[in-house]
Specification:
The chain has 1156 residues and is mainly beta. Helix content is 10%, strand content 38%. Strands 41, 45, 46, 47, 49, 50 and 53 form a seven-stranded antiparallel sheet that branches. Strands 20, 23, 24, 26, 27 and 28 form a six-stranded mixed sheet that branches. It starts with a helix and ends in a 5-residue tail after the last helix.
Amino acid sequence: MASLPSLLCLCVAAAHLVGARDTTSTEEPTGTAWGLEGPSVQPDQPSLALEDWEEPSEWTSWFNVDHPGGDGDFESLAAIRFYYGPARVCPRPLALEARTTDWALPSAVGERVHVNPARGFWCLNREQPRGRRCSNYHVRFRCPLETAWGAWGPWGPCSGSCGPGRRLRRRRCPSPVGDACPGRTLEAQKCVRARCPECSPDSCECPGHTLLGSVVTRSGQPLPGARVSLRDQPGTIATSDAHGTFWVPGVCADSQASVRAHVDGFSAGMAPARANGSVSMVTIVLDKLQKPYLVKHPEPRVREAGQNVTFCCKASGTPVPKKYSWFHNGTLLDRRAHRYGAHLELWGLRPDQAGTYHCKAWSEAGAVRSGTARLTVLAPGQAACDPQPREHLIKLPDDCGQPGSGPTYLDVGLCPDTRCPSPAGSGPRCGDEGSRCCSVRRLQSREIPCSGYVLPVKVVAECGCQKCVPLRGLVRGRVVAADSGEPLRFARILLGREPIGFTAYQGDFTIEAPPSTERLVVTFVDPSGEFMDAVRVLPFDPRGAAVYHEVKAMRKKAPIVLDASQSNTIPLGEQHGEAPLGELVLPPGAFRTADGRRYAGPVEARVTFVDPRDLASATAAPTDLRFVDGDGELAPLRTYGMFSVDLRAPGSAEQLQAGPVAVRVASDQIRMAGHREALKLWSLNPESGLWEQESGFRQEGPSGARVRREERVFLVGNVEIRERRLFNLDVPERRRCFVKVRAYVNDKFSPSEQVEGVVVTLVNLEPAPGFSANPRAWGRFDSAVTGPNGACLPAFCDADRPDAYTALITATLGGEELEPAPSLPRPFPATVGVTQPYLDRLGYRRTDHDDPAFKRNGFRINLAKPRPGNAAEANGPVYPWRSLRECQEAPVSASHFRFSRVEADKYEYNVVPFREGAPASWTADLLAWWPNPQEFRACFLKVKIQGPQEYMVRAHNAGGSHPRTRGQLYGLRDARSVRDPQRPGASAACVEFKCSGMLFDQRQVDRTLVTILPQGSCRRVAVNGLLRDYLARHPPPVPADDPAAFAMLAPLDPLGHNYGVYTVTDQSPRLAKEIAIGRCFDGSSDGFSREMKADAGTAVTFQCREPVAGRPSLFQRLLESPATALGDIRREMGEVGRAQARASGPLRARRGPVPQ
């Protein structure tokens, strides 16, 4: 039986769809009879072009959440936001367009439909002409572009007649829609008038009056020891007692005095006292101090001299930081000269103002430093974009080069991924609307002679400043149980504190990183309560390439029942064969309800410990183990274990609080010098993903005059278990470095064939055997995403002992594990990418070095810090902590570690070049493989091969029905078939083809002409019956007179595994293809496999034969004996024909003859 939370989530989704079917509401206008609502649109006309709309706006991508059946077809806006994510459609769409999956307007197919931009689209079968049912529709929405604020007006007068006050200034939003501009209309600033007259005791005291008050937390927990004062009077007037209450005589009743309270570890709070006769009452609520953290970082800008620029910074925390400082090239800028706050505005830029800028935000809880943003100031006449394209080599097909000369490469050119200044500079706003980028201005067509054909190609002829392709930092992935791999279905997803959606049935999720985000902190909450909240800092690519993550959630420990009136001890860490690392001690009477009342009943406690002595637990550990140090910079922690605490009354969903609770850590588990003194207890802030210190540890004294030798000595710390439930035993570590890693297309490691969007993970392992340090399996972990210049991963390192710290490094791409360079029989510098003698000092070992049966998915190294003055170690791959920029900008010739994709037996060629890891490289061309840079649709065909070996299969993709592309090549795809381990003599290939659909101009569809050609002596013997019927029902048919090939006009509908076709749509081309390949291997529409199942979900089957060993080639036999050779050919073709008849016999019996 399904759990109640799961059923509730299903009911929510069903409610969205039911809401779309309710057509009786008349609160909002709807359009009928055709599929577009908007200005000046006729039923039989295509959608308006971008330039035809009066209000600046753009179309979203196409959505399809429902298939026709039952009552009709329904594309509810609520359902679209539920399944695709709320950020995919703007809050108030301007218009809606609907088309069938054959790209026809509703009026063209004679169907009556309903459209409403605020609700969605619906088509009812009962409203259609007799005998007709609703087609399958997909829809898109027209969304307004974000409108920019006007300039701030002057400051108004200071409020009040004396003392402190505030002044206001306003700005105007030019849009007629009131809330089109994000942010506030008003901005306030503190100000001070002349000092107010002092208050004398005679006029301020009221002997017959009493002030009664209490100080509590946000959850109602009383706070003893709070220092209470009046806002307008210095000094403490009272201190709260053990119940959080205080009593002050002589406070005037008619003053409505504002009363302040302060407790260490909490932000100061204030509340007005309300008079009731001779008594005034006040309750002051205090929030726990929360270290500030950045939610908006300054972004890079390019400007011309004389233009203006605005940098923006925003921090959060408790209290919210109000003080900001700005730095230029590390030097503090004068606050009075620049009059800055969270925004820094620079007017009339000069060349000397170029460089790096960063901000620092302050509050009483601490400070935090932002990332740096580079400002480029161009001199008058200086070009921001070099019109001459840079070199970019692509590999040509093998039959396009000289025989025996190896692969042939062609320079197709690329434009540098740089920003251009906007035409009029920037006003006082944070965004950079109308931003331009250096991109392709002109393409040039060429023809490459190949073996028996001519290969068309378009190369970059000129670069120029064009409107930027909108970039979205996307994260896709799946949440699964760490112990069983089962998906976490319908888990709630929180971005900081804000809920943004749910995981799907298979645990899948898609998240778009907000602009100017550097740390994407996401929490996955299991609806069943069986798993710990999975708080993750997910690396993403801000350049727009999507990244795939598999998130593993840790199952909570089985509950134990505690007696609240007794002292209870819970062990921390129960690793097999190991003593517990420590214990949690809950004294009698330590439990309270959320409102602060004592709880004396039984308690169900689930204390789950993430034990670093278990290497497998690293994948389920939360966040990235970082904190904000005293300088406001992010610094790493080394963990000795983490634990979550879940306390509830039996049968209750409400969490209990507890405290003070003692945390005791066995000192014999901490052996590294200095770590016992530096060990701290931390709690996780789920909003920022950062750890904040709760307490230190002290060594527990001996219990008597004599201590037994076997008695363990503990370090003791204390913690209050309130809102936060995840704690950490960590040591800040100062010996830090960065490790440089790159990923490549194949093991040739060509500099021009690097792969972006690869998630590289580094786990700090326990020291080498014999080194007297921590008995840990791992101490911390970090992940980074490769960009055009690789990735730099933080790690602990040591200059004196190379083996003091070791690391395991792995890399994945969309679920695919990449393979590092080999280390057997010994690591070669040219292969590994690291020069000698540094390579020997690092001790590089691939995971299969000691046992060839092990997976080759990672490598281990000693983290030997480069020694100063040693030239052999000054060029990577390990860089000092303060040399991050040198690591990030290191040339490809510098030392680095290497990974390569295992799937090297495939080839991709596009007539219009496009780098899938850089969406900004997309070019608007009718022959572009991907027609929409905002959404990518990947299509694959599963081809089964009956033969003794693996074969290369090619997909030739050309224009099929569009008048301007018919017969022109889009691209080639080659894929080698993979053997089925359960089917000897059978293999299958998942071959990509160009999906049919609208071309980039969104005016007319093209059904791609796809030709599948196995490269060998092969004959087609079977075609999927459903696919064949579909193609017959969607003319025109493609002649099938070549028995060695299969050709079709690709379907417009996203068919599934029953047809042998696998279609996935995503905002990342690479992820779309990886998911489709996983489904194709599995032979299902929702599964994923890396093991080929050749008999499941195939589209077409070929039979391939190998030539008899020692037999002359066909050309030689024709020369020597033409008659015998022709007889052999006729006999072989007859055998193939009989095999075809056997394969298609059952189909003929049901449907009659079918042409092959």
